[in-house]
Structure prediction request, 188 residues.
Amino acid sequence: MATTADFRNGLCIEFNGDLYTVTYFQHVKPGKGPAFVRAKLKNLKTGRVIDNTFNAGVKIDVARVERRPHQYLYKEENGYTFMHSETYEQITIPEDVIIGLPFLKEGQNVEMVVHADTETVLGCELPAFVVMQITYTEPGLKGDTASSNVMKPATLETGATVNVPLFIENGEKIKVDTRDGSYVERAK
Prediction:
């Protein structure tokens, strides 16, 4: 048990029968009336963000959540199979808990977010940036445009499509942001 004084960004709490993480909070002490805490909570299962106000000092249930290193092995009919990097234990999870799924490739390291008490997988997070090879893109011709920020679609080795600048060609490796699927830079 904790109180609202223990709020911090990233804290996992049990609220209304679900697990939430605190994404934003603010302690408010009005001139008149009792103090309270305004918070934005993100549901760990659905990803939905809600606003809630807690009275100051209210007891909250803190959930124990662990981040565990895993490596992606292969896809099956019933989900995706991962192996724990230290214990070599394998688990299969459904695709709806994988964040950044279009950029997942075999052998890639990820972090599993696991509820420690129930051993339930809450999410699978890819690294923020991954290096991918372009399998197909239309050739960009010099002088096609007057502005320098024109993009063209490119298909990656996983089958995902990303918009890249005109100078990128087939076979090149690029860095991609897995959170929003955007091109970052050429890979070195």
User: Anything to note?
Assistant: Residues 129-186 form a domain with the OB fold (Dihydrolipoamide Acetyltransferase, E2P) fold (CATH 2.40.50.140).
